[in-house]
Design brief:
binds adenosine monophosphate, three-stranded antiparallel β-sheet, 258 residues
Amino acid sequence: MSAAFNSIRMHASRAGIHVSGAESLVKDQEVEAVALELFQRAFKHPRGRADRIHLTIEQVVDSQIRSASLLPLKTLQVDSWQNGRAKAAALLTSHGIPSAVVESSIAALAGGAAAGGQVMRGAMLVDVSSGLRLEPDPNRGVRVSRMDIAPQLSDRIGTWLDAEGLSGPRVTEALVLASKVALYPQVVAELCWSDDPDYLTGYVASAQLGYRRITRMKAAGDMMGGRVLFVRGAQGLNTLIAKLQTEPVLFDGFDAEG
Ligand code: AMP
């Protein structure tokens, strides 16, 4: 087995409630630095001090890693979170998702989709036809994992994001996650906004649309957020969940023109 890459996953919680999480796929020589960075992120987070931090480091078999291209990114400027959510809803319904399903999903994210109105650790899976939630554990959700920028793309994507005024790990990590989700045809589209009280931007993404950042999706100070993956029915759901969680993907292509 050749094991040049490793999956590093961090999850931090307080009293059982999600505080922060992160995933990456890095070469042996980067494991120590990335693990330290994720640990520091878990320890000092705008959502508060975690009382439990899990850091998992696992070798990934090189031959199992899939290569793919990142979704093209565009930013939609909006002047209020209400307009941001209306814009997101319009993008989602343009995929054929009924507006009742879109509206109930937005309401679930806004109100806290886990038990007791708390944020979830992973994503909701919502059936596009019925609006029913399909994730096996509605408190945890499904955590998309084992994905990253390929080392050969890292400098180029960093330079491009800097030039766009989008430096820092947030956009890169969300773009990588959304690009992995969009690889699976059973997912129609994804909706996200952060649960960080000071990060108001969100997105709608799909293979068809690309990655559309929406500059405001919630009010400043709001601790709620999450992700919804709109899926075409329950058939093949277990395979989809397994791939979202465990298929390793490195992104080595990017079309800056969108
Ligand atoms: P973040 O973008 O890190 O602020 O996360 C916002 C929300 O998205 C979290 O509260 C989770 O519900 C969800 N989330 C974060 N990371 C993942 C992931 N890797 N897979 C699925 N859902 C996630």
